Amino acid sequence: MGKKRASLPIRQLLVLRSKPVFSIFLVFCVFAFVRLNRSKSRSSTTDKSSIDEKSKLETNPKVAFLFLARRNVPLDFMWGAFFQEANVRNFSIYIHSEPGFVFNESTSTSPFFYGRQLNDSIKVAWGDSSMIEAERLLLKVALGDPANQRFVLLSDSCLPLYKFRDIYEHLISSPKSYIESYFDFEDDRYDPKLLHAIPKDRWRKGSQWFTLIRRHAQIVADDDVVFPIIKKSCKRQSNASVSARRQMLDLHKPQDCIPDEHYLQTLLAMSGFENEFFRRSLTYAQWNQSATEKDKQWHPFTFDYTDASPQSIREIKEIEAIHYESENWTEWCQVNGAFAPCYLFARKFTRGAAVRLLSEGLLGPFDPVLFLNATRRFFPVKHRDIQAR
């Protein structure tokens, strides 16, 4: 009969079996501790990076200047003087010009404009929805830089009325956008066919020259509802087609709709954001009605050399409020409860007008020798003012 193997006491057996289990548990705890610390470290680094990025944006927010040009920017020498005193971290420049046009030393007097054109620009026609498409292209590109917090649309005949520091501080300190927007009770551009998509009480009119905070700029860039409707239904009638239709018996006048005068205002009204912007543009224009019988439309006045006097600029700067006759309503120009300039920019100015204002110290001390050396090849000997847009 074989011998029975002596069995170990139960307590000793449990101790022997628990040793490897305890070792595995200890290794797991150490591993988990290391992973947790690494995770916290990574999270801390990410949070610190996010805070640093946010702090960077808050300390150095940029103003994006968006130029809508037909070809070159005729007043680039004036803008060059304007940007010369600025910190390059406080602004950026984007230009929508005709497809294929490049800004370099042979096409611009100012290095600030070199290479700033959009590479995917489109052909733009006045009074056409292509104008809005170009504006949206500018916004989409400018939104690619998270530091851009204000977006100013300018024409190629615009000029600044103040130095960079003053304009920058005004724009950054204001929490709202600037968009001229009003309801014109006598406006016959609203097409009743729009009723199902755009209610008449949301139809707005105003200037296309905006200044937007980043949130509103993103809304415009992302819009895929209102723009297609405006593009399809709001179109400018040519003078010939209008005259021909008016000769038809008992027919009402066709809607002569200018898309860029309605799109942005109507979009934000439809989105419920009208309390988030000042209902005025920061770009001044002097409007005159045509004297001819064939053309009774209103057109912006063009300032040439003789018109652009220091007195005329002073009068623009002294404007304190804007009155809208269609609504019998006046908006006083204020920012954060304090009175502020109504206008920071103005149009339409010719090269001759800009030269005069620059030489008379609009943007500070002027050196005629440096100016002539920098712009000699761009100005013909017998100077003629180029008609501004």
Automatic annotation (TrEMBL):
GO cellular component, one term: membrane
Listed name of the protein: Glycosyltransferase BC10-like isoform X1
Mode of membrane association: Single-pass type II membrane protein
Xref: InterPro entries: BC10-like, Glyco_trans_14
Transmembrane segments annotated in the record for this chain: 20-36
Keywords: Glycoprotein, Glycosyltransferase, Membrane, Transferase, Transmembrane, Transmembrane helix
Tagged with keyword Transmembrane: yes
The keyword Nucleotidyltransferase is assigned to this record: no
GO MF annotations in UniProt: glycosyltransferase activity
Pfam families reported for this sequence: Branch
Compartments, record wording: Membrane
Species of origin: Rhodamnia argentea
